[in-house]
Amino acid sequence: MEHNAGEIVELAVRRQNVNISELSKRLNVNRRTLYNWFKQRKLHTDVILEIGKAIHYDFSVDFEGELQPLNFAEDINVNSRDLSSAHSESVYYWMEKYITLLEDYKRLVRKESSERMLT
């Protein structure tokens, strides 16, 4: 039986009451990409599985024989650890970038003010 993968995925997302903006953040794609996926008749199984993990939905029922059933308890624990460590690393990364930028700006302002005093 030929099925429309995009429509099935979109319907599952809507049934799970997941906001498209929130889903795009979880998957690290933009909203337009999600809408494009919803229009496609065929989707790569990796895309379907990632969306399923993000919305906590097992697509193996909808795509019988094409997908393996998901073990959400295991995936959720792994993802929450990955997200928390990635978030903390991300915070420190951007904090360091911000501090470096402020220091560079401070040096430029000092250099410019000292050059004005000389002229």
Question: What would you say this structure looks like, in words?
Answer:
This protein is 72% helix and 0% strand. The protein is mainly α. Helix 1 runs parallel beside helix 4 (45-55). The protein is rod-shaped, with a radius of gyration of 23 Å.
Which of globular, elongated, flat, extended, rod-shaped describes the shape? rod-shaped
What low-confidence regions span 5 or more consecutive residues with pLDDT below 50?
72-78
Gap between N and C termini: 81 Å
| Residues in helix, % | over 70%
Sum up the structure in keywords.
single chain, 119 residues, mainly alpha, 5 helices, 0% strand, rod-shaped
How is the topology of this model organized?
Layout: H1 5-15, H2 20-27, H3 31-39, H4 45-55, H5 72-118
Helix pairs in contact: 1-3, 1-4
Write a brief caption for the model:
With 119 residues, the protein is an all-alpha fold.
